[in-house]
Fold these 3 entries.
Entry 1:
Amino acid sequence: MKLLSIVVPCYNEQEVLPLFYDKITEVMTGMKSEHPELDYEVVFINDGSKDKTLEGLRKYAKMDERIRYISFSRNFGKEAGMFAGLEASKGDYVVVMDADLQHPPEFLPQMYEYVSSGEYDCATTRRVDREGESKIRSFFARKFYKIMNKISQTEIVDGAQDFRFMTRQMVDSILSMREYNRFSKGIFSWVGYRVKYIEFKNVERAAGTTAWSFWGLFKYSLEGIIAFSTAPLAIASLLGIISCFIAFIMAVVIIIQKLTVGIRADGYPTIVCLILLFGGLQLFTTGILGQYLAKTYMECKNRPVYLVQETEKDARENMENKD
Ligand code: UDP
Ligand code: MG
């Protein structure tokens, strides 16, 4: 027997949860009839939802023994949710997917073929268009991938998603990266292995709204850069070298001027501009240093990535006690 673990982080997903449950049950029943050796479990992570997501999960866990869930003590973010789900998963194969059906479960049979054949260790979808997304957002997304791939050794594929079907070996590799600041796009790529990209057109969310604001995405992309590149740290040295070079040339020019035609003491605006410029550059680069220092500070505190308040075991025990 082979077990497939389906890991689903959920944050305020009460509206899509029933849709997701029906869909995944349908797809997996179909898959099971085709591959009798395959069984599955679904591990939902309730990431501190403020709506009735947890109630829904309790209900499904009591109804269906294939449904498991982990409920966090508060919202820890999707990265922590995925990490918790991977840790809890028991399967020989693990797939991570969103609850909102933007990662269509219809891909699962195809992904299973690729990975179980032994040809690939991971199958994932890649968006080829950004339909249903604002122009500005697409523009910044593209720029982000460009910059990121220039300054980081870890390649991040444009349009690659967190919809990943993986072998146990790859999951264990990911779990061995115990960093607190988790940037999964980078982590998935950093561990390597043979990855199959399945191209597909973007789908809109089935219900509910996205938790991502533009500002949120912007901050997330900076996190990604800091987590997987140290290139920004070199900006200070680079600017320093350039300004030393300019200063040297200026000094030579001034000395020659003084010895030949003489210098009239003006240039007050120039001095003000230069002080502002270099003051700004110094603060900017100190700020970059601060960002890395802050990440290092958080890492060395060694805090847990997430805290569990309740799991499916609690729901099932409750049910037995009532009987
Ligand atoms: N999610 C989560 N914790 C969060 C935010 C989101 O677990 O703090 C989950 C959410 O429930 C969904 C997935 O992450 O299953 C993707 O979120 P969303 O659809 O809001 O993002 P988008 O598809 O717009 O990237
Ligand atoms: Mg979504």
Note: The chain has a mean pLDDT of 89.
Entry 2:
Amino acid sequence: MNPFYEQMPVSVFERMSLAAARHGAVNLGQGFPDFGWPEPILEAGGQALREGSNQYAPSRGVPELRKAVADHYGRHHGMELGPDNILITSGATEAIAASIFALVQPGDEVVIFAPAYDAYAPLVRRAGGVVREVPLRPPEWRIEQAALETAVSTRTRAIVLNNPHNPTGRLFTPEELESVAAVARAYDLLVLSDEVWEHVLLDDRSFTPFASLPGMGERTLKCGSAGKIFSLTGWKVGWLVADSAVIDVVARAHQFLTFATATNLQAAVAFGMREGDAWLHPMRRSFTEARDRLTAGLKRSGYAVLPSASTYFLCVDLSASGLDVNDEEFAAVAVEHAGVAVIPISAFFEEEPARHLVRLCFAKRPETIDQGIAAMDRAMRLLARR
Ligand code: GLN
């Protein structure tokens, strides 16, 4: 077998979700909500299953969804888009894979900010590319233009940006985004902008799409996710938004990854994208409350919690919490002996991983969060004694 895959570890999300199931632990690891999906979308999905087509969708996506996604960004961000700017994919991870395969040739360099979603670097390497990692430093996790510039060379093809940012929960400021845009302009780069968390905004914050920055419309490949917008992560419906000439090429990569995405789920998501703007505010409010509930509970146990402005996640600083364990050791004790799965942050780095942070998902009902808080309290007692 190909050693690239033989030697690759199982994804940290799969590993921790399997461990949670094996130990009967509450799963605050992999990011998925246990509440909050809009009933009308499920109804629309059910109706589409019974009355709609149950055959292949067009490879680029059903026309009504491509139009609904284009219109959604027109409404929310004033972007002028049509269906030719949209490619529907089986989740945003597939959009990222297809984009990287369509963009990267052997020897091309791709700049990634670390910590980073764990799919980016292996996909770049599988395409024959070379990963250049730019560290973001905790607790601010700021993008520094000077650090970015040291990673860029004449071989650089693209920058992968993730905003809002998983796992830190940071929403980059317009100034930080502009510093990425300045580098993209100066070095003639494309930017793969993973914006799947664009609507999961806490405390009434607002989001700046990267493509809205001067000159970035034609340079940006934006990934979006119905899973995140509608709390339906298992549907695996995502998309890519880009210049139509870019979409034309990425669509060729997509056609031999999944070919097309579940037809009836696309129909239901199209309904949601047309009708669902009213669901966004209640979703943000309930996730903001959930973040606050988890933060307060963790602080009562003595954990140092980093702020989170977006996504489903917050990070806990283990060393600032007075614990003398690394993230993997903490995660193992937490899931095996205390009853809670968390994500060790070192899995989000290629070089020089931070090993003192774990990520917790707060997109959960109050009772799930309370179980998680009780289990984190047990973990603190088990480990503080060491
Ligand atoms: N985006 C999810 C997370 O960060 C994981 C997605 C996956 O498991 N493929 O938890």
Note: The longest helix spans residues 277-300.
Entry 3:
Amino acid sequence: MSRVVQKFGGSSVADAASIKRVAERVVATQREGHEVAVVISAMGDTTDDLLDLALQVSPHPPARELDMLLTSGERMSAALLAMAINDLGAEARSYTGSQAGVITTAAHGNARIIDISPGRVEESLDQGHIVIVAGFQGVSQDTNDITTLGRGASDTTAVALAGALGAKYCEIYTDVDGVFTADPRLVPGARRIPQIRYEEMLELAASGAKILHLRCVEYAQREQVPIRVRSSFSDKPGTWVTDQSLIDQHPETDLQGGPAMEAALISGIAQDVSEAKLTVVGVPDEIGKAARVFSIIAENDINIDMVVQNVSVTNNTTAITFTLPDADRPRAVEALLAERDEIGFREVNFDDEIGKVSVVGVGMRSHPGVTATFFKALADAGVNIEMISTSEIRISVVIAEADVPRAVQAAHTAFGLDADTGEAVVYAGTGR
Ligand code: ASP
Ligand code: MG
């Protein structure tokens, strides 16, 4: 008997009817002869609603209490799903993250999984139960307090549990039919990708594709867990996120039916409008100044993304530009201005209305001209490039936020990714 983990996102369990539909799918999987562990998200927009509620009660809720509040969303849906499954004649048991043995760091709101000790889950599975685990939460090893793992992190709970249970694969059920060549909400002609390598999925997730949580892909690659992304609203095959070596071990994960995964020139395009751009102007062109600027940012626990420093042309000063999360921008400006005299720069400028568009594909390693094609498409669409950064398998540009939809569509067309079939269906979700 093989074990599988199935994760259902908030839009798949938005109301009572959807919970019953999910229950049927889970029970059917058990009746096919699998041991099934389910990881569940909070219903619909519950997490956002709980956050709004907290802010109405208190402008700065303590992080510990916020985690107590937010974890209740997943606990609700876990218990409800167990009830629906029991009505279908199967036996289900729901567990909180803590009961399921999800041990984390103490960082409320953004804790990391240190280990999973799934003793109780194993026992339950051995007794023939369908196990339901509340996603996105755990318990801190140091403080014994309840923690959350960051927004969207039920995916990570699911893959980590699959790794700990030695599951054959982890299915992530969402409101679209898999991973697409671009966000189907922006590009109606986006195509489903039947198979994608971990490294490409990592770059897409890191570049803003919201289909999978970044840490879940890191986990899957490390633990070699194949992930199948598919819709809970259809029976379409979805997308396998895996590597060739795993396909050879588990032929059922090969949706292309071919001998090897094709090395696509461009696998997909991702966009991210959650960042801001900050420029420190008039920095003396001296050793150690850039180090000072970024130490200040680091001391404030702010993660930066792209960095550009221009050549000093006039009066031996330079400008340093970087991108960072929108939410951290005010703090970064304040922290830098506090040290203006010491560092000797002139001023700090910022722009919150920027977006990043990235093209990703392992094929670009061996093909010249990808950058030229991308930039020509942007030019033809009348989009101005403000910053550029690349990795071996990714090219990203920072542009005006208002240009993002146009830029994504233009790149999608330029790389020949447009499909003429209306494959990209968005079944649910408010996109909140
Ligand atoms: N409910 C949490 C969120 O909305 C976790 C998740 O759905 O993955 O971020
Ligand atoms: Mg999600």
Note: DSSP finds 13 helices and 20 strands in the chain.
